[in-house]
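Encoded backbone
================
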Amino acid sequence: MFQPSRMIALALPLGFAAVLSAAATTALAHTEATPVQATTALSGPDANTRITEPYARLVARDAWFWAWPMVNVYNRRLANTKAPEQGLVGGVLPMSPFNRVTMLSDYIKPEQRAIACPNQDVVYGAGYMALDVSPVVIQVPDFGERFWVYQFSDLRTDSIAGLGAMYGTKPGFYLVVGPNWQGEVPKGIAQVIRARSDAAFIGPRVFQDDTPQDRQAVQEVIQGINVYPLAEYDGTLKRRDWRKLPIFPKRADGTGETRWVRPEVFFDQLPLVLDLAPPLAGEEARYAQVLAVIAAAQKDPALKQAMIDEAEKADRELVDPLLQFRNWGIALPHHWTTITNGARFGTDYFTRTAVAKSNILVNAPNETRYFYQDLDAAGMRLNGANTYRVTFAKGQVPPVKGFWSLTAYDAAHFFVPNPLNRYSLGTKNKDLKINADGSLTFYVQAESPGADKESNWLPVPKAADFSLFLRAYWPEEEITQGRWTPPAVDKSVIASNN
């Protein structure tokens, strides 16, 4: 079986896919499949088998789809290797070297384009781990009654371990080690978390009310969030004021998400990615098949170009349509959709890739349930030329122990600036007005519904398609058991002057 060298390409320009280093390219070009005994069942073609172009295209198309999320996370991870220290790209995006975390100090800013479907309910953090370099210590401060969760996932975007309010996680120090680590656990470590691979992502999320008072109060809490190599552990809580971070140069972003997966380097990177993400049960043959074809393509430029061409087609035809929520998910009343296996995708390649394309790095379903919407109650595409109302009946706001919110995004799943600098409504908003019958109505439209209703106004892009996204953090059983679903998005008056 073809075994790629375990190397990481460091030449990735921030926000773009990397080309392999010369050493990695050489290793890929000259590595041969290991011969097997004649009596051994082969996983994939023999190294000396001539691979036809149609077969290579078939394998390339399939691999592009199922491995797209892993290569996506891999390239985000590579981008962080360029960080000289913890800081913010363009003042908006957290970035840090391996085995560190960088926290924001407020809601994520609307101009960022590195990750689709961000929320403005939490203070985010992000960091990537290389556990083959060092075990990592994760600090959990005392969050008191404030909701919090640390997303902790692998290259597959599957959850590794649960750390958060819903787990009853205690303040303290948590040690994360790779699958083969055999070292000594120092005193004071509350728990050892053994990851399935040496590559991992951590993303703290800490709830914050949309008030000046809570923006200040949250600072004391998040200063205790930290991640660092085991060698730096001394049993004392290391604090940092995340408002004081260096600013790295801003990259040139477009209207959509930064393109993290590129056909021209996908098949150079894939062996390195698969080396970091060992196969799940039953995936061994899938891995062997694609690696054998890649090995053949390294010796045949025409074959490799055919695979790149097929990846470009697969991106357009298979992956791009998954940006739109209406094209996937479990159907619910009123054209809403949802998923029930977030961060637990396993071999559900379709849902994993759909989520990665549209709103990557989701939480596990007991941590957060997500509800997606592109359509109004009549099944028509949501568009800012119209006005809409979303009304929660009395006692029917999302049942949660954490928080909930309804967020509006443009067609690319990002925020569009508006006069209120408001992109979501929910638990964080303390001035929502309740109707006389006890119901709660949100006015989803481009123009203000009037001063008396402005507290309940969710601005959307003018005369352009948009999507809605309802989050329920730490959902109650009514949600997890499917007994609660969101209300219809009702079209009201068409704005004739837009």
Q: What stands out?
A: The CA atoms of residues 306 and 486 lie 45 Å apart. DSSP finds eight helices and 22 strands in the chain. Residues 22-77+259-315 form one domain. Helices lie at 22-30, 53-80, 212-222, 263-276, 284-298, 301-319, 349-359, 477-480.
